[in-house]
What we know:
This protein has 353 residues and is an alpha/beta fold. It has two domains: 2-171, 3-Layer(aba) Sandwich (Rossmann fold), CATH 3.40.50; 175-352, Dehydroquinate synthase-like - alpha domain (Dehydroquinate synthase-like, alpha domain, Up-down Bundle). Helix content is 44%, strand content 20%. It has a seven-stranded mixed β-sheet with strand order 1-2-9-6-5-3-4, sandwiched between helices. A two-stranded antiparallel sheet has the order 7-8. Strand 1 and strand 2 (11-15) form a beta hairpin. Helix 6 runs parallel beside helix 10 (260-277) and helix 10 (260-277) packs antiparallel against helix 11. The longest helix is centred in the middle third of the chain and has 18 residues, at 175-192. The model has no long low-confidence stretch (mean pLDDT 95). It binds nicotinamide-adenine-dinucleotide (NAD). Nicotinamide-adenine-dinucleotide is lined by residues 42, 44-45, 71-73, 76, 103-107, 109, 129-130, 132-133, 136-137, 140, 142, 151-152, 169, 172-173, 177, 180.
Amino acid sequence: MILTVHTETPYQILMERGSLDCVGTEAAKIFGPGTRAAVVTDSNVGKTYAQRVVSSLNSAGFQARVFSFPAGEEHKRLSVIADMYTAFSEQGLTRSDFVVALGGGVTGDMAGFAAATYLRGIRVLQIPTSLLAQIDSSVGGKTGVDLPEGKNLVGAFHQPSLVLIDPDTLRTLPPLFFADGMGEAIKYGCIRNHTLFSLIARGDITAKRDIEPVIASCVNIKRELVERDELDNGDRMLLNFGHTFGHALEKLHGYQGLTHGEAVGIGMVMISRCSEAAGITEPGTADKIAGVLQAYGLPVSDRSDPQRIAQAARLDKKSRGNSISLVLLRKIGESFLHPLPHEKLGPFMQVLS
Length: 353
Ligand SMILES: NC(=O)c1ccc[n+]([C@@H]2O[C@H](COP(=O)([O-])OP(=O)(O)OC[C@H]3O[C@@H](n4cnc5c(N)ncnc54)[C@H](O)[C@@H]3O)[C@@H](O)[C@H]2O)c1
């Protein structure tokens, strides 16, 4: 699959099994000979894949060096970015050189942010290796880090020069993270593509079986929404389906015991139950979503008090002024933004009590 994302500077998304060994030849179509490449990766992905990427880059005439940091969201912080800047300057990166983000969403967001800010911006090539990164975070240019005060509070928009997806890397992804990514894929089906939803609903998609059409459909939806709304002020917000209640749940659980994908899945079911009760969404939609989530081992309900969920949702960073922009479905495959004043959120959620 080859897709072009028509942002201010267009770039391509390539997907092919085994393409990790072609990073060098693909990079040579964009970057000049002898260019330096800083391959940023985490401790898990690096030990399995970094050498292959470095060999491919070096055989194509680049000078590649690896920067590895400990895996995990808890390392998505500014001190690690500072270490990246040091490594980049020790390697002698200039503005004609580039960064390679090799890993999941944490690596992509951090390497992208370091590239966006080092020397006021150098180019970045995204090689996503988790399902979530392949279908979502590697495309669209959102980069950043967490602060102790909250997730993704510092960041920049910095579109990649190329996204290279090798679905074979998913064979080593731990099952929990594969399921997490499937939660996001189900979200894409819900907001934009009934056919994708039905494909996933078969319940038998694995890293080895039929994952390519799922990745291709999701990436294409992301491409379309990013092209229409590069800076996330309008239609791109449809990607937040399930996130309003999902973020609230993550917060109520103290960011432990519930993964992001699990929380978003529960959030999709909850908000659809509310909008069905309000006569907005086709009846039976929430049950359909719950059925597909369960097929991939994802939870569909939570015991948190709905009024506390509403309270946490009002404080969400996506809340603007006195209202919150909810993403609702008319039916599977059709979504829209629905602004709701804060005081109406409690009554809207009454059905969950
Ligand atoms: N920029 C965006 O648009 C955007 C969108 C959604 C999420 N995100 C961010 O993405 C992050 C979550 O991404 P994630 O779930 O990929 O997390 P992650 O990067 O931490 O990866 C999950 C785990 O899987 C491991 N891993 C990744 N690929 C592997 C592979 N092929 N084989 C073996 N292990 C592998 C990682 O080492 C890690 O332990 C969050 O920080 C979130 O904020 C960003």
